[in-house]
Amino acid sequence: LTQLIWLSDLHFSASGPVFGIDTHARIVAAVDYINRHHATAAGCVISGDLVNRGGERDYAELARILAALRIPVFPMVGNHDNRELLREHFSLPANAMSDFVQYQWDVGDHSILCLDTQHEGSDAGAFCVTRADWLDATLSKTTRPTLIFMHHPPLPLGLPMQDRDRLQDGDAFLARLKRYAQVAYLFCGHVHRPISGVVEGIPFSTLRSALYQAPPPQPQWTWDTFSPAKEAPQLGVLTLSGSHVTIEFNEFCPSYGSPN
Ligand SMILES: [Fe+2]
To answer: What is the C-alpha to C-alpha distance for residues 27 and 44, in angstroms, rounded to an integer?
Structure first.
């Protein structure tokens, strides 16, 4: 059995609360929970939006807090991140692409791909030819069951605001994945809501944000009227065994607004 921890959308800020939530206390709560219950997991994947505004102090302080984790961290970029600052403050596997925060690692019987879907200057995601070529080359080299992590979902999920900002050209991305029978599961961040399904025969899940949650699509809301849903954050506990993948969605702190 191999376990992996999955966190997403930390939106950490070194300069005060985000939507009234103490981002420092929230990450400390996640670190404490993981160290207490999952210290033998193979790693913690963070599927993007590590920080709320991409500044030097944000990355420095976040890296300092996450250094207390007893398992290795696998950080990824979202639309709120800065690639250069992320690389300055976190280490990536040696095979990471030089211009993108995109890399592969093996755990147990599985291969894990962490993709970079950032499109600089946009909240929507992109996956350019350079990244797609790397994906083809990497998937061609292994027959291990492969789990793919990416920030932007490649399909609409019935979430009006987030759907607009999904991965552009997601159909082409999915058509590419479909060519590789070993692709076992797709894990996406960005939407701040837990949704699971199957697309092109590939099972997928999204995850709550570690910080604040998006409301359900009904009643309708827009970014202008947005206010976080009163729902507690969760992390994913992935258990991998042979061809089996299970995900537990666990609350690591009981309240939506404070870690206590
Ligand atoms: Fe995002």
So the answer is: 13
- Asked whether 228 and 26 are in contact (CB, 8 A), the reply is no
d(Cα 240, Cα 245) in Å, to the nearest integer? 5
- Taking the centre of ligand 1 as the mean of its atom positions, its distance from the CA of residue 198, in whole angstroms, is 21
Q: What is the pTM of this model?
A: 0.97
Tell me if 51 sits within 8 A of 81, measured CB to CB: yes
Joined together, the tokens standing for residue 196 give 């699971």
Tens-digit pLDDT string for the chain (260 aa)? 899 999 999 999 999 999 999 999 999 999 999 999 999 999 999 999 999 998 999 999 999 999 999 999 999 999 999 999 999 999 999 999 999 999 999 999 999 999 999 999 999 999 999 999 999 999 999 999 999 999 999 999 999 899 999 999 999 999 999 999 999 999 999 999 999 999 999 999 999 999 999 999 999 999 999 999 999 999 999 999 988 999 999 999 988 775 44
Contact between residue 141 and residue 97 where contact means Cβ atoms under 8 Å apart: no
Four-point Cα dihedral 147, 149, 150, 153, nearest 10: 60
Cα–Cα distance between 199 and 202 in angstroms, integer?
5
Cα 137 to averaged position of ligand 1 atoms, centre (Å): 27
CB atoms within 10 A of CB 120: 9
The three-point CA angle 125-80-4 to 5° equals 80
Q: Are 81 and 118 in contact (CB under 8 A)?
A: yes
How close is the Cα of 48 to the center of ligand 1, in Å?
7
Å from CA of 152 to ligand 1 middle: 7
